[in-house]
Design a protein that fits this description.
The complex is a heterodimer of chains A (494) and B (221).
Chain A lengths: L1 H18 L5 H27 L4 E3 L3 E3 L1 H31 L4 H23 L3 H19 L5 H36 L8 H7 L5 H19 L7 H8 L2 H30 L1 H24 L4 H22 L1 H33 L10 H4 L1 H15 L5 H16 L1 H26 L12 H23 L3 H13 L8
Antiparallel strand pairs in A: 1-2
Chain B lengths: L4 H24 L3 H26 L3 H28 L11 H23 L9 H18 L3 H23 L4 H29 L13
The chains are: A mainly alpha (494), B mainly alpha (221).
Chain lengths: 494, 221
């Protein structure tokens, strides 16, 4: 199993390095498709191994427990479909002319390195090395966000760089503070930075230092996760980045930020009690939902619309983990993976619309269902899922979080449900305007060379989204069971 | 040679205080290239502090970190920044959101805040570097302030690098440095981040004809 873990981490790195040498489009397409296939296969092996009950580890460096395997599942699945989508999307840009071949190649180098840094980060058994990998993902994404070199893209890229670099620096300060607390108990060594060792020693660490560390890490990695009020880079970056990057930023990078916060929470809770971190998370979560719901209503740009919806969903996840308990924690986890699937689907569809019409104006888009049935249908289904309609998984997770909140703090549940209703109405209204009615413009249809890849990515995501929404698969349940230990929750999976 | 522990800790305190002092000098400085020089000077003090801690504690891996500080933060990054300033021709006065006297007052308040925040946890630390943790947090906060209060892209980069310096001092003070592999990774990341910021400032100049970030207002809502 350790070999599968190594392949999973090495595949994006190797593919990124090989991309440097590629000279033609068909070779790049085959390379990236192969990359996606390897990612899926290796991920399946790792998830199967961990689901069978054994953590997968390699040396003292890499260790995949249930939470890591859960992140691997998400990163590799959505990362894979995003690669397939990117092959179609960038291929289309290449054949139409705005992107010449050297930049086409560079796009895949950045993209592969971005995936590599994220997959590496979630499997590292070391809080400081994880920071380095997360910083690596921030840097590689910085190159991708400003890829288009328009004024707007540069402005978005600059905001992204400044906010995220500062955020990640604060997270490093938090990491140093964790080490400050742990070296007193565990001694000055690498051991004092290992997640698995920290988890065992958590109860004996100094609570005041850990409280400070959590605040720094929450603000730091929270910036990366797009938590309000540090969210201001997010709508710009999601709107201006090339669409495959938007999908990965929203579906995966935000979850990576959440992952880092959650890992630390599992260390902080035993030392200071769950109330401290929980209240901060509930507060920031509700704030994120409020800001997002307001801005969803007034959006005129469909990529920004989905970006604000991401802030809302990050807020929902924070409320879930903040209220805690079996319902909150599993609601939060289930929400993360469903959001990754639904939001990347929404961005894949949005990218197709952008390729067709060449603008991002909601008012200028109508009748998607008639003009592009698959794209329009996917956008409609993704929007319904994101709005929290059954039978999709986000409905189940939102209900779980609401019941969890009601048991602990009823007012949180009321505020949560109210904000959900507002966001539901805003998102559904905006997307209905785009998918229904008569098409206004003809636009430029996709060439078959780009169309089949993007169609495949859309279909794969839709199938996965429907599959885990209707019936929670066994492997996912098997991953959730050991996480009761990771998150210190008592009780059954609801 | 053996140094009396009290003397050692006072030397470390002196060096940390000099780091803090250069922060104030950066705040009070109007010329951009002088700000870069002051950042380089601050990095020299940082390297000296680290080397001092390495000498007094016998933790040899901190010497490597000190050497890397000299190479990356005293030599390479200031050169990159100078080249950017040269090319962009932005030697003129800084654009300030907040004037210098009020900036200095605010930073004084930030230092007091940092000492207040770290008060409860400072007693946990090693005797030698106890007070440096508060100074480190002060430098981080002042770095933030520089990023907010100054408009030019280059000054925002300097703010970011000052934050990094504060952090590094914090890591040295709180934990006698992180394990070597971690330090190396952090340095690599900072170097790459500095390069990328340099690339972006070039592109900003080419596209906007300016590195005044208050002109980046196209994206709203």
């Amino acid at each position: 199993m350790a070999s599968a873990l190594i392949i999973l981490i090495a595949a994006p790195l190797v593919s990124g390095l090989l991309s440097l040498a590629v000279r033609t489009r068909p070779v790049m397409e085959r390379l990236q498709m192969g990359h996606a296939a390897v990612l899926w296969a290796a991920m399946a092996a790792v998830v199967a191994g961990v689901a069978a009950g054994d953590d997968v580890s390699f040396g003292s460096l890499l260790h995949a427990d249930a939470l890591s395997a859960f992140m691997d599942l998400m990163l590799a699945f959505v990362g894979g479909t995003a690669l397939v989508y990117a092959v179609g999307y960038m291929g289309e840009k290449l054949s139409r002319g705005p992107v010449e071949f050297p930049r086409y190649r560079r796009f895949f180098v950045y993209f592969d390195l971005f995936l590599f840094a994220m997959v590496f980060a979630v499997n590292l058994d070391n809080i400081a090395l994880m920071w380095i990998a997360v910083e690596g993902s921030t840097i590689s994404a910085a190159l991708s966000v400003g890829f288009d070199r328009t004024k707007a893209a540069l402005e978005a890229g600059w905001k992204y760089i400044i906010l995220n670099f500062v955020g990640i620096t604060l997270a490093l300060f938090g990491t140093v503070l964790v080490y400050y607390a742990s070296e007193h108990v565990l001694g000055v060594s690498m051991e004092a930075l290992k997640w698995s060792v920290l988890a065992r020693a958590a109860g004996s660490l100094n609570p005041v230092v850990l409280k400070m560390a959590f605040v720094f890490v929450m603000i730091g990695y929270g910036t990366k996760a797009g938590v309000a009020p540090m969210h201001t880079w997010l709508p710009d970056a999601h709107a201006e980045a090339p669409t495959p990057i938007s999908a990965v930023l929203s579906g995966l990078m935000l979850n990576l930020g959440l992952y880092a916060v959650l890992r630390l929470k599992t260390i902080v809770d035993p030392a200071v009690g769950p109330e401290f971190a929980g209240s901060i998370m509930v507060g920031l979560g509700l704030l994120s939902m409020t800001i997002a719901a307001t801005f969803l209503l007034i959006q005129r740009d469909y990529k920004r619309l989905f970006a604000y919806s991401s802030i809302e969903h990050v807020g929902i996840v924070l409320v879930g983990f903040g209220v805690g308990g079996a319902a909150g924690v599993f609601g939060g986890l289930f929400h993360m993976i469903n959001h990754a699937l639904a939001k990347s689907t929404a961005f894949y569809a949005a990218g197709r619309v952008l390729l067709r019409y060449g603008h991002k104006n909601i008012d200028g888009v109508t009748g998607l269902l008639r003009q592009m049935p698959l794209v329009g249908g996917a956008m409609l289904l993704a929007a319904l899922a994101l709005a929290g309609m059954p039978p999709f998984g986000l409905f189940i997770s939102e209900i779980l979080i609401a019941t969890g909140a009601y048991d602990k703090r009823p007012w949180v549940a009321y505020a949560f449900l109210l904000l959900l209703v507002v966001a539901f109405a805003a998102l559904v209204y905006q997307v209905f305007r785009m998918v229904l009615g008569e098409p206004k413009e003809t636009g430029v249809p996709m060439t078959p060379g780009g169309g089949r890849f993007t169609d495949f990515a859309l279909a794969a995501n839709l199938v996965a989204m429907g599959y885990i929404g209707i019936h929670m698969p066994g492997f996912l349940r098997a991953l959730f069971i050991p996480m009761t230990r990771v998150f210190h929750v008592l009780g059954e999976i609801p | 040679m053996v140094i009396h522990p009290d003397l050692g800790s006072q030397l470390v305190n002196l060096c940390s205080a000099l780091l803090l002092l250069t922060c104030f000098a950066i705040i009070a400085q109007r010329r951009l290239s002088a700000c870069v020089d002051l950042f380089a000077l601050q990095s020299v003090f940082l390297a000296v502090t680290a080397a001092l801690v390495a000498f007094l504690t016998g933790a040899h891996h901190i010497y490597i970190a000190a050497a890397l500080t000299v190479v990356i933060k005293v030599i390479i990054l200031p050169r990159i920044l100078k080249a950017v300033i040269e090319r962009l021709n932005v030697k003129r006065e800084l654009v300030l959101n907040i004037n210098i006297p009020s900036s200095l007052l605010i930073c004084g308040a930030l230092v007091i805040l940092a000492f207040y925040i770290t008060q409860p946890i400072i007693s946990l630390g090693f005797l030698l570097t106890q007070d440096s943790l508060a100074i480190a947090l002060s430098i981080v906060l002042i770095g933030f302030f520089i990023m907010i209060a100054r408009k030019k892209a280059v000054t925002q980069v300097i703010g970011f690098l000052v934050i990094e310096n504060g952090l590094f001092l914090g890591a040295t003070a709180a934990a006698y440095g992180m394990p070597l592999i971690v330090e190396l990774g952090v340095f690599f990341d900072i170097l790459v981040a500095g390069l990328i910021i340099g690339v972006y400032t070039h592109r900003l100049q080419d596209t906007f004809d300016s590195v005044d970030t208050s002109k980046l207002t196209g994206l709203k809502e």
